[in-house]
Amino acid sequence: MYKSHLKTLSLAILCSTLFTGCGGGGGGPKGPSIDLSNNNNTPSQNTGSTASNNNNTTTGTVNNNGGNTATNPPITDDHSRYARRGRVIDGYVQGATVWLDLNNNAVKDENEPSVISTDKGSYELELTEEQAQCAAYVPTYVDVPVGAIDEDLGEVTKAYQMVLPPTLTSLEGEDQQHITPLTTVLWQSLYKTDVYKDKTCTAILADNALQEQLKIVMRETIVQVIEHYNISEQQLFSDYIESGDEALQKLAEDIVKGLQASVEKYLKLAKEYVDAHEIRVLHYLDTPPAQPDSNELVWYRSILIYGKDGSTPVNQRVRMDDNLETVLFVQYDRKRITSPWSDNHTYIQSTDLVKNSADDIGHCFQSEKLEVKIDGITYELNNWKRIERTSQQQACDDKVDFSDTKNRVLSVSYSKDRVSYLTEFHQDANSIAELDDWLNMSGKSEILDVIVLVAYFSLAGYEFEDDVNIPFSSWHKRITDDSGDNRIITSRDSDGTWQRQTYQDDGTYVQECSTDGQTWTTCSD
């Protein structure tokens, strides 16, 4: 689960708004820490920054017209002892709001401590003992509004937000916690993982196993970031201005450029998709897909919007110009339709447009997936096909006939006793020999019996040690064991190879390979 996400991180400079939710309903995120309305009636949701415009949207606690004030406990010797100190750095930023997100909901609530950064971006966030304990496990946000002062670049004209991820360890009183674009990159990886998302301080403190999982993700993320940028771990958390590291400062400026563009686009989308559950906007530098060996980095923008019903009305990636103002071409555009199917099961049809360059005609990737959940086990059947486009104008039709599909993926996943299991069977034209009625499944809920599908999986040999008893082009089985002190991930593939990752107390892991699951040796490159 983590490796695939970290691989994405290693390919791109991540510059997201980090804002989740627009409406607030349900038990998920309540909304961003910026006021999307034209009033100032809700202090707890108006402490962040907004892009400059001509309406009456405020710029939060640094607004000279009044409004919200920083909320801190009375300063005592004990509070000073538990204070979190550091600097807000793009250049040194004065007038930014630093706040501790105690419940990890990406919203500055009234009870959460905050402070305004001062000379050289310095901040001192006074905490109670209880808040200091939480500070190790939740993020610290910085809202940089229009009108704040960057001591290198002058007045901030485009708002943005930065984040310091949780340290996951206790801090000494004099430790400096700098909040920079690079620490924001780290937060991206941790924030998006299921193991951390929406977890409150209370939940994390009560679960030692969860704490260990978080340390694993953080350690892996740090390794990936420093390898990608060719910097040291010390540089990653450093005050690069004080040290005179000009190259690192230039990198940080590029990241902020993406952060600012993401805020502007997010605010526009939030007004358009007012009922969205979550909106993600990401600007990043990456190598062009058509030139994988090139050293050139170009700008891309990714937008992902979730509806409250679980749908994704927008899932798009585009190539941007260097000013992040003009879309040069759409590289990837997914349309996804989710609908109920029979007894609480789900049918999902996806249509993807994929291009590698402006001149590439591209292709359409079509898939239909049936997701069946019975007795804690999730069974999935996914039919897919690729259709080459004949012109730039050809649309990817979402009315697709899957009767001639030549590709299928069957998967089953479940968990028990803190151990998770996943098995995937891949089939091609030579191995799709059964379940031939399970095509164009959208309108067949009254015809197809899920018991037949479950019985097919039962005979397939999906348990980790079982032999596979159905036709396949390839298969993959994986166990993620969190029942002990440290995580162990063991996988085996149809080519006869086995891999095992055993995580250590410091979050690193030892990777071993085998041909029989009994004798393990260090994996060769």
Automatic annotation (TrEMBL):
It comes from the Bacteria. Residues 35-45 have a biased composition (Polar residues). Residues 46-72 have a biased composition (Low complexity). Residues 30-80 are annotated as: Disordered. This is Lipoprotein.
